[in-house]
């Protein structure tokens, strides 16, 4: 069996040219990354959505750079042969360029990412260009940008009217010009996402952005329904219901422990014959067994 070779940005761009759809999944830990790699995923995104999905926050805003480094490193250990992109979290690339580059360095050197993702369009293009010139691939992200959820007024579809569509096209072109190797389009009206994909030379990867993108990304836990009190999302297709299986399995474990069914004969280890007699004296062992 041949060892999988990780993609690079040249191959990712070529996939758009060849009409080969790009598959991306957002994962946050070693076992998830390992399983995703075994399933032959193209790219793993270590998203700051880990705040909502695995850390219990109600948004991505509380997620720190330390959180991202920790989870990125875990994913990198699980998917050694997959291209890994890690989010720069809230307010880690809006200060001085020196501070931004220090944060990028941590994700690359400590988090073992192959690229970083940044939310925003024309307003961050200069920063994107500087990071790219420093030798770091950048994945752009426009449309719904969760780090700006308080400013944009919630989780709303983007590009529904002409001015907003023009803004998104302008942002995509600015990121392309700045050197981004691809752009995530999140919750963008399908017609606008398709227009953006046609107007730029770099790949677009959609999440809730319809069928005209060059690839798709979904969150691991959404794909597998791996959560409690799962909230349905129109743009998500669930491919397995792991949550119910996990809940059922743990419930059965609790039941068997409570009824002393587990551990059974197959799950215990025996000492050498006569050990209890040696410990407690012959004839007294039964009271300790």
UniProtKB/TrEMBL annotation:
Role played: Catalyzes the reversible reaction in which hydroxymethyl group from 5,10-methylenetetrahydrofolate is transferred onto alpha-ketoisovalerate to form ketopantoate.
Top-level EC class as recorded in UniProt: transferase
Pfam families to which the protein is assigned, alphabetical: Pantoate_transf (PF02548)
Record field: catalytic activity: (6R)-5,10-methylene-5,6,7,8-tetrahydrofolate + 3-methyl-2-oxobutanoate + H2O = 2-dehydropantoate + (6S)-5,6,7,8-tetrahydrofolate
Active site (record annotation): 186 (proton acceptor)
Gene name for this UniProt entry: panB
Chief site of localization: cytoplasm
Enzyme nomenclature, EC number: 2.1.2.11
GO BP annotations, alphabetical order: methylation; pantothenate biosynthetic process
Location within or outside the cell: Cytoplasm
Name of the featured protein: 3-methyl-2-oxobutanoate hydroxymethyltransferase
Cofactors: Mg(2+)
Protein's pathway: Cofactor biosynthesis; (R)-pantothenate biosynthesis; (R)-pantoate from 3-methyl-2-oxobutanoate: step 1/2
Methyltransferase listed as a keyword: yes
Organism: Paenibacillus anaericanus
Family named by the database record: Belongs to the PanB family.
Self-association state and partner proteins as the record states: Homodecamer; pentamer of dimers.
Residue numbers binding Mg(2+): 48, 87, 119
Coiled coil residues, start to end: none
Keywords: Cytoplasm, Magnesium, Metal-binding, Methyltransferase, Pantothenate biosynthesis, Transferase
Gene Ontology MF term list: 3-methyl-2-oxobutanoate hydroxymethyltransferase activity; magnesium ion binding; methyltransferase activity
PANTHER family in the record: 3-METHYL-2-OXOBUTANOATE HYDROXYMETHYLTRANSFERASE
HAMAP family: PanB (MF_00156)
Binding positions (3-methyl-2-oxobutanoate): 48-49, 87, 117
Note accompanying the cofactor annotation: Binds 1 Mg(2+) ion per subunit.
GO CC annotations on file: cytoplasm
InterPro entries in the record: Pantoate_hydroxy_MeTrfase, Pyrv/PenolPyrv_kinase-like_dom, Pyrv_kinase-like_dom_sf
